[in-house]
């Protein structure tokens, strides 16, 4: 409450003392990091000042009328009820103001819709509740998850500056390059918004929307999903890191190397404890949102894994669910999201954990089986 | 006193029946109007309690009192209840009470239909609220219920939600048919269309909007039903369907719907400003044309809710221009209200205070509406708290304040008793201050980047959110005072005069009948001559 009072005072101070943008930081849109975002910011300020002027004029006129024409002894109210000239005047005035606003709005709109191919093209796919980024030319990609801990969210640990705006792996883009985003979704509608780029595009299953940016200076830019997409809608932030083109090519090469390493891992001999360790981490990152910490889910929407027939005794179906998802239910396919090792590990983990191994068959799954499943499908 | 005379008396007894059956079987427009109003007041407190849960959760960053899943159920049902259970039925309640009295008719044209259209409403909301106790929880996909979140990914209770929306739609359509029929057929002799009171005009146009768009909503939910249960793919991308189609259909209903919630308010506010300025309304015919233009424009602006779905640029520009056009008739209305007060003789009783606040704060909501119409800027505003601020400014100090104003304005006529003016003013000032404390800072957090419909938020939004929550709690408490004022008026108010407000009897038929208005009014039509100000 004190903070609220303090801020209302600082609001008054900001409005009266000076109009420097510093004081506006908490109150206004950010001008952003690209030419387009700055133009949109400029348009926003133009419209804002026009509306502010109209608002102040109307409210002042109203205050004047309320004071001047309050009921007084012996003063009779007028009885006019029409003035065609006056009404035509203000109708024309409104139309003129709107034209003044429509002209810059149209020109900024045309610039925003300048939809050429980018120097690099990135496919962005919204999933419940994470973003997938794929660099189309370089054929590498990854998933980006919220990295704020549950302890912070549950007020068990102090929150820091980037609370709910931090991810395990940010999208990396090069500066001084035209980057085009192709935006779609895998389940429900999401919306990819980075205020500093002035890009907000809905990610819609079955559609590919586009947006583009051209960042001049390196920096970290944060945004959030802006279309209600289910219970963890508030927990799928976006972090974009703009780096120099050199740093960017290093990043891409590292990604390509990692992809090759990953493929080799399916040949390795795995122990149950190794799989359990990776499986638990994978579960915490990808499954816990729906199936919950103890594996009991939130039936009927998110079924319990504890004592489930499939988890205990039907290994083939268990693999199939992870690979294909469940039609008509919230369970998505993880074939693309997770590596073969992670899928094998998380299946092994759920078959062993929470007493499932004692009552079920407790069979483990090795990465090779997942690879075979994929190859058989081809 | 002989028995013969007694039974004769009973045959002609025109008072209400006794007990619950009076309300269940009534075809009296005043009874039905009262039931609509009480129903919406109850719903206001239910929907308001949900808003309190939302604001308690958002009081500080971090998880507070409810899970994200339940938070979504609160957001969804708060919206559904406030739109379909509070604002709309309350306006229908006023229509029932006031339209026959304002046009000099004895009752609504279709009294039995009237009874039915009310009584299916509690059924609809009973079904909707019962989903909270079902497996999977209540609807959680927002009041706009975008597919596929509301179809493939919805909780099983979505089917109850669909049924409930169908019933609400049927109720609205029946109510609208009744209102149009009444207005067209039952006006007092000499009351031509252009002499009708503005509240009647505003409802006449609103009723046509309802008849035009409620079937569209019914179509949308039926397609959802088919997608969920009959294997169709209207909105399923995987089956060749189109999730964006849902949004087009929804907003083709949804945009006229938001005007359905504001046009009757325009009528109410016009009457109140006229009465308390002691001066005829300025520009009556331009007021009527403005309402009609807003209604017509409402059919060609729907995709301004969808500027970020990836429309072609021609679509963006068309919907931007058409939306901006709405500012013209709306501006005309605001200027006409100011001109009505200009050179009047103003007094500031509670209804007038709410009406003045309506004009001032609705103007703020209208101006943020112009900002939102600017499509490129909307890329930044869309689905942030700036939008939440905008539509709450037009719906709370807009529609809801007009309803409160109307209740204070007409309650002396309904009950024959005056409300407590001091308490009314206290209620007004508490509401006015807290409504601004609640919704004004939302502009700031929205511009600073806070998305809507999130149960937790980043640190930089913390201070304003705390202020918003404090304002919301105050606003919630203030409305309990309103309930107290109404009950005090009914049980303990001072007697009201026939005219109630100084000079009112020249301004409408409703002020020429006794206070309280007799159970049956105007069994023979009144004469237009009795109204001085009928221009």
CATH superfamily of the largest domain in chain A: Cupredoxins -  blue copper proteins
- What structural class do you assign from the helix and strand content of chain B? mainly alpha
For the largest beta-sheet of chain B, the strand count, sense and barrel status come to: 2 strands, antiparallel
Most extensive protein-chain contact, per-chain counts = A-B, 104 and 102 residues
Please, how many helices of chain A? 12
Please name the CATH architecture of chain B: Up-down Bundle
How is the largest sheet of chain B built, in terms of strand order? Answer: 1-2
Evaluate the radius of gyration of chain B.
23 Å
Care to count the β-strands of chain A? Answer: 10
Description:
The complex is a heterodimer of chains A (378) and B (535). Chain A has 378 residues and is α+β, with helices and mostly antiparallel strands. Chain A folds into 3 domains: 23-112, Orthogonal Bundle (Helix Hairpins), CATH 1.10.287.90; 120-149 and 161-262, Immunoglobulin-like (Sandwich); 268-377, Cytochrome Bc1 Complex, Chain D, domain 2, CATH 1.10.760.10. Chain A is 44% helix and 16% strand. Chain A has 12 helices and 10 strands. In chain A, the strands form 2 sheets. Chain A has a 5-stranded mixed sheet with strand order 3-2-1-5-8. A 5-stranded mixed sheet of chain A has the order 4-10-9-6-7. In chain A, α2 (35-68) runs antiparallel to α3, α6 (272-286) crosses α10 (340-352) and α10 crosses α12. The N and C termini of chain A lie far apart (62 Å). With 535 residues, chain B is mainly α. A two-stranded antiparallel sheet of chain B has the order 1-2. At the A-B interface, α1, α2, α3, β7 and β9 of A face α4, α10, α11, α12 and α13 of B.
């Amino acid at each position: 409450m004190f903070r609220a009072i303090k801020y209302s005072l600082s609001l008054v101070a900001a409005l009266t003392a000076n109009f420097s943008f510093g004081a506006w930081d908490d109150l206004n849109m950010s001008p952003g990091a690209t030419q387009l975002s700055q133009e949109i910011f400029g348009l926003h300020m133009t419209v804002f000042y026009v509306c502010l002027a109209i608002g102040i004029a109307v409210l002042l006129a109203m205050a004047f009328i309320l004071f001047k024409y309050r009921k007084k002894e012996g003063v009779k109210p007028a009885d006019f009820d029409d003035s065609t000239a006056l009404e035509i005047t203000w109708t024309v005035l409104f139309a003129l103001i709107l034209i003044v606003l429509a002209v810059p709005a149209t020109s900024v709109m045309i610039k925003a819709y300048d939809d050429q191919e980018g120097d690099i093209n990135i496919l962005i796919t919204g999933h419940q509740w994470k973003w997938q980024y794929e660099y189309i030319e370089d054929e590498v990609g990854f998933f980006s998850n919220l990295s704020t801990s549950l302890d912070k969210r549950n007020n068990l640990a102090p929150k820091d500056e980037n609370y709910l705006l931090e991810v395990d792996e940010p999208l990396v883009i090069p500066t001084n390059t035209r980057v085009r985003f192709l935006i779609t979704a895998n389940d429900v509608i999401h919306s990819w918004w980075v205020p500093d780029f002035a890009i907000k595009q809905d990610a819609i299953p079955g559609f590919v929307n586009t947006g583009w940016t051209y960042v001049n200076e390196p920096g970290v830019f944060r945004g959030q999903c802006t279309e209600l997409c289910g219970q963890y809608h508030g927990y799928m932030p976006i972090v974009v890191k703009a780096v120099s083109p050199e740093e960017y090519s290093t990043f891409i090469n590292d990604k390509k190397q990692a992809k090759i390493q990953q493929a080799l891992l399916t040949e390795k001999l795995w122990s149950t404890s190794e799989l359990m360790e990776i499986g638990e981490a994978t579960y915490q990152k990808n499954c816990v949102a729906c199936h919950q910490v103890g594996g009991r889910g939130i039936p009927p929407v998110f079924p319990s894994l504890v004592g489930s027939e499939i988890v205990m005794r039907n290994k083939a179906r268990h693999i199939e669910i992870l690979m294909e998802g469940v039609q008509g239910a919230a369970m998505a396919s993880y074939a693309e999201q997770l590596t073969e090792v992670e899928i094998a590990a998380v299946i092994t983990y759920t078959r062993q954990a929470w007493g499932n191994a004692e009552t079920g068959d407790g069979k483990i799954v090795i990465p090779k089986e997942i690879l075979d499943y994929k190859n058989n499908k081809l | 006193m002989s028995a013969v005379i007694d039974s004769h008396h009973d045959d002609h007894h025109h008072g209400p029946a006794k007990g619950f059956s009076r309300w269940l079987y009534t075809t009296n427009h005043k009874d039905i109007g009262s039931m609509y109003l009480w129903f919406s007041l109850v719903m206001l407190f239910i929907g308001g309690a949900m808003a309190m849960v939302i604001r308690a959760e958002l009081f500080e960053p971090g998880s507070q009192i409810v899970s994200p899943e339940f938070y979504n159920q609160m957001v969804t049902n708060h919206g559904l209840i406030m739109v379909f259970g509070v604002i709309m039925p309350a306006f229908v309640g006023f229509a029932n009470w006031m339209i026959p009295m304002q046009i000099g008719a004895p009752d609504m044209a279709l009294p039995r239909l009237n009874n039915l259209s009310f009584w299916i409403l509690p059924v609809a909301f009973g079904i909707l609220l019962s989903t909270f106790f079902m497996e999977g929880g209540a609807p959680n996909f927002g009041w706009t219920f975008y597919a596929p979140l509301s179809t493939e990914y919805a909780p099983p209770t979505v089917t109850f939600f669909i049924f409930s929306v169908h019933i609400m739609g049927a109720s609205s359509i029946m109510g609208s048919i009744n209102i149009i029929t009444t207005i067209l057929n039952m006006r007092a002799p000499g009351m031509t269309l252009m002499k009708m009171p503005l509240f009647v005009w505003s409802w006449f146009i609103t009723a046509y909007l309802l008849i035009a768009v409620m079937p569209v909503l019914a179509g949308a939910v039926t397609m959802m039903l088919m997608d969920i249960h009959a294997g169709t793919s209207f909105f399923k991308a995987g089956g060749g369907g189109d999730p964006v189609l849902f949004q087009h259909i929804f907003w083709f209903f949804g945009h006229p719907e938001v005007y359905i919630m504001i046009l009757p308010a325009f009528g109410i506010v016009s009457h109140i400003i006229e009465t308390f300025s002691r001066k005829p309304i300025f520009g009556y015919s331009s007021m009527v044309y403005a309402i009609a233009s807003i209604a017509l424009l409402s059919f060609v602006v729907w995709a301004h809710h969808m500027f970020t779905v990836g429309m072609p640029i021609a679509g963006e520009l068309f919907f931007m221009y058409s939306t901006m056009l709405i500012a013209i008739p709306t501006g005309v209305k605001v200027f006409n209200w100011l001109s009505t007060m200009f050179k009047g003789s103003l007094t500031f009783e509670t209804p007038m205070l709410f009406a003045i606040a309506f004009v001032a704060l609705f103007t703020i909501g209208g101006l943020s509406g112009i900002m939102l119409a600017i499509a490129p800027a909307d890329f930044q505003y869309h689905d942030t708290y700036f939008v939440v601020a905008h539509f709450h400014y037009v719906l709370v100090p807009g529609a809801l304040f007009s309803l409160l104003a109307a209740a204070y304005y007409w309650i002396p006529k309904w009950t024959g008793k005056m409300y407590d003016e001091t308490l009314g003013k206290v209620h007004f000032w508490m509401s006015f201050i807290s409504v601004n404390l609640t919704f004004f800072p939302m502009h700031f957090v929205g511009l600073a980047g806070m998305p809507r419909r999130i149960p937790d938020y980043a640190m930089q939004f913390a201070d304003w959110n705390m202020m918003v929550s404090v304002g919301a709690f105050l606003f919630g408490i203030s409305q309990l005072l309103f309930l107290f004022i109404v009950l005090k008026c009914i049980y303990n108010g001072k007697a009201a005069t026939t005219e109630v407000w100084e000079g009112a009897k020249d301004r409408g038929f409703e002020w020429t009948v006794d206070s309280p208005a007799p159970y049956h009014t105007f069994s023979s039509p009144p004469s237009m001559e009795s109204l001085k100000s009928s221009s």
